[in-house]
Amino acid sequence: MSPILQLDQFLSNNPDIEMFEVLLHDLNGTQRGKWLPRDKIHKLFEGGFKMPLSSCALDCWGRDQEELISATGDTDGICVPDASTLVRVPWGHKPTAQVIVSMTDESSGEPYLGDGRAVLQNILSRFKVLGLTPVVASEMEFHLLQIDPDKFGIPRHTQTAIDGSPSIGGQTYGIDTMRGSAGLMDAIIDAAKTQNLPVDTLIAEFGPSQFEINLYHQNCALRACDQGSMLKRAIRSVAHQHDKLATFMAKPFADQVGNGMHIHFSLLDKDGKNVFDNGTSEGSELLNNAVAGCLATMADSMAIFAPNINSYRRMVPGCYAPLSPNWGYENRTTAVRIPGGDYRAMRIEHRVAGADANPYLTVATILAGALWGIERSLKAPNAIIGDAADLAPSLPNFWNDALDSFENSAFVKMMLGSELQANYARCKRQEKHEFDSRVTLLEYDAYL
Questions:
Q1: What are the C-alpha distances in Å from 32 to residues 25, 68, 83, 356?
Q2: pLDDT, tens digit, for every residue of 218-256?
Q3: For position 318, what pLDDT does the model report?
Q4: How far apart are CA 141 and CA 284, in angstroms?
Q5: Helix and strand totals (H; E) in the chain
Q6: 386-401 burial code (b ≥16 CB/10 A, e <16)
Q7: What is the distance of C-alpha 417 from the center of its chain?
Q8: Are 248 and 242 in contact (CB under 8 A)?
Q9: What pTM was estimated for this model as a whole?
Q10: All domains of the chain, ordered by start, with CATH?
C-alpha cells in the first residue's frame, strides 16, 4: 500500500484526530518538528513539507551550528514521512497523532546523510548487498523521579528509606516494588500498546528509582530504533502526566549506578536462517568476525555510545559500564556478550551505550562495526572468562578523548559518512564548550 493510501486509511480509522506531530530526530535523538492540523497532513505526504537541513544537527539546547549555517546557507530539505509510524498520541491535550520523517536533500533528492535515520538506512543497504538482514532489539534503563527537585536543584528519588534518603538498592526484579508504581507502569504499557510498541518486559533495576524496559526484536533495524525512540518519549510523557519525571540520563546520581542501553542483534540470510548459529555453543565464524569488528571499532565509536559530558560519569569502575573492548559467552561483565540459550537465537549483546545515546546512531554504529569485521574477516581475541572489570580500562573515558578518536576515525568516515562525522563532532564540541566555560558550584565550594 502506498504512503498516501496508508495515510487515508489511518484518517478513516481515526476520524477524531485533529492534530499531527511531525517528528524529525536530531543528532542527540531529540524529536524536533512541527504540528500540522488534519487538513494539512496530505501536504507532508505529497512532498511539500520542508525544514532546514540544519534541524538534524541542533545541539542539546536546540542551537544551530554556525559553521554549518555559513557553509550551506541554511538550505531546506524535504521531510519524507514513514507511514508505518502513524500512531495516536494518547497523552495529547486534543486528539493527536504522530509520524516520523527522514530528511532528504532537496537539490539531489537523495537521503541527507546528516540525518541519523538515513545513516542507519545506508548501513542496512550495505548488509542487503551481502544478502543479510539485521534483527535488532533494545533494553533501556531509566530513573523514575519526583517531578520537582530539591532546593539545590538535585533530583529526588521516588524510592526512599524511612528517613527520606535514597533507598540502599532498587530491589532488582522486585515485584512489590513494581506494584508500588503499578498505576504509572500500567499507563506506560497502555500507551505502548496504543503506539504499537512491542514491550517485552518491564522490571525494577539495581539502583533506587531505576527501572528497565525491553522491546521485542524486529527484523527491521529501522523499525526497532523508531520503537526505541518512541518508547522513551512515551515513558517521559506518561510519567509527566502522573507528576513524575522519567529520565534516561546516563548518570543522574554520582554515587549510584547509571542507565545503560543494551543492543541485541543477529543476522539472517536470504532464507531467514540465523548466520551466527552453526549448531554449537561457540557460534559461527561470521559471529566471530562481527564480534571482532565491534571490538576493533569500539574506541572510535565511544562519542556515539557516550554522547554527553554526563555519559562519562558512568564510564568508571563499579558502575557496570564496560571500560575495555572485550567479549565473552554469558558474561555480563564484558562489553560484548554472547547470551546463552537456544542456538537458533544466537546473537550479540552490545553493552556499552548509555540510555542517553541516540538509538539510530547507536545501532548504525554497532552494525557498521560488525560489518567492518565481516568484510575484513577479522578474528576476535580470546573470549574473557571471569570478571572483565579486573582488566585495565582502555576505552576513552573522557569526552575530549572520545571526540578526538571519532573525528580522526577512518572507520567513522567510511561507514557513517563524512557529513555525519563533521556535523556530530561540531555539535558535541559546541556543547562541550559550554561546560568547559562554566564555573560550577563545586568550584565555588572548594575555592571561593
A1: 6, 18, 18, 16
A2: 999 999 999 999 999 999 999 999 999 999 999 999 888
A3: 72
A4: 31
A5: 15, 14
A6: eebbebeeebbbebee
A7: 19
A8: no
A9: 0.94
A10: 12-111 (3.10.20.70), 127-447 (3.30.590.10)
